[in-house]
Every structure is written in C-alpha cells, then in structure tokens.
Specification:
Elements (H helix, E strand, L loop, with lengths): L2 H15 L16 H18 L8 H20 L15 H14 L4 H11 L2
C-alpha cells in the first residue's frame, strides 16, 4: 500500500471510529458556495423526479455533461490528496445502481474491468 493510501486508510478509520462521515476527513469544511447550493437543489430535484417515476428530469446530453464534470471534479480532489468517497453515507444508491454506473463509465472511455484491476494494482486506488 502506498503512503498516500495508508494515510487515507488511517484518516478514514479515524473518522469512522469517531462517527464522522468519511467525506469530512481531514479537510476543512467551508460554507456551501453558490454552485454547491445549486448542485444540491438539482440533486434533490432529480431524486424527487425518480421517486415520481420520471426519468425525463434531465436530457441525456445534460446528464452526460453533468456526470462528466462531476467525475473530473472528483478525480481532481482525489489527485489533490483528499480522502473522499464519491458520495456520502446517506446516498441511497443500490449495488445495482453503482455497478450499472461503473460499467457505463468504463464503457464510455473504452476500458475493461481487467484494465481497471491492473490500474488499481499499480496505483493502489
């Protein structure tokens, strides 16, 4: 395990032991920015639409643009050393949701699960 990964593991373990969400480790928490408020509002709107059985809350193109931007932001934060998970503890995401999304992400960038495994073994992520 790399020193970065062991530091992340220690931070995650410490936060879990203290009952804190992993997403709070150990970087400062700032007041929501205007864009953060907009993003949380959009997320709530999407969740409500899904509860109502509506999948048309965003066009496919808008969803793709948003997902790509969020993936880039997440990767930038992880690369900067922030020990965060892609979503918090109360996400409501099912295993099927996660696997379907992960499979789609890999397919969109023309990668196979084998390549992901190789990358994870080389980087420790």
């Amino acid at each position: 395990m790399s020193s970065h990964n062991s530091a992340v593991a220690r931070a995650v373990h410490a936060h879990k032991r203290l009952g804190r969400p992993v997403s709070e480790a150990p970087f400062p928490v700032f007041a929501d920015t205007e864009k953060s408020v907009e993003a949380r509002t959009l997320a709530a709107d999407i969740e409500r639409a899904l509860v109502d059985g509506r999948r048309d809350v965003l066009t496919t193109e808008a969803m793709q643009d948003l997902l790509a931007a969020v993936c880039k932001l997440y990767a930038a934060k992880v690369e900067a050393g922030e020990p965060i998970l892609p979503f918090g503890t109360h996400h409501g995401l099912s295993a099927t949701d996660a696997m379907t999304s992960a499979s789609g992400l890999l397919r969109a960038v023309n990668l196979a699960v084998f390549e992901l495994g190789m990358w994870q073994s080389c980087t420790g992520r």
